[in-house]
Write a structure and sequence with these properties.
The protein has two helices and three strands. It is an alpha+beta fold and 103 residues long.
Length: 103
């Protein structure tokens, strides 16, 4: 995939993911810093690496499925894979606005 096109799709994905609200904190998962990485391979294969606020969070599967479904329906996406990680562990310092940046 051409680099500018890849960046555009990644930006669109992050924008779309702002619709998903963490049920515990009531804020979107992007601004909470729960999305660690978004990458797009040739053919529209998207990989999202994310975390939850705590290991064993009861909303983990809900959030993974919400991310997968949200990404899957975006133009240019043919497949969406969502990976959950706890490295590094999430902290409130990862939230947007805490340091004036968005992940």
């Amino acid at each position: 995939m051409i680099e500018p096109e890849n960046a555009t799709i990644c930006d669109s994905i992050r924008d779309a993911l702002r619709m998903i609200i963490d049920p515990e904190l009531g804020r979107n998962i992007v601004d909470l810093g729960l999305i660690y990485d978004v990458s797009v391979e040739d053919g529209g294969v998207v990989h999202v690496t994310m975390t939850t606020t705590t290991k064993g969070c009861p909303a983990s599967e809900y959030l993974k499925e919400a991310v997968r479904n949200c990404v899957w329906y975006l133009p240019g996406v043919e497949y969406a894979e969502v990976r959950l990680t706890y490295e590094p562990a999430w902290t409130p310092d990862m939230m947007a606005g805490r340091h004036g940046w968005l992940r």
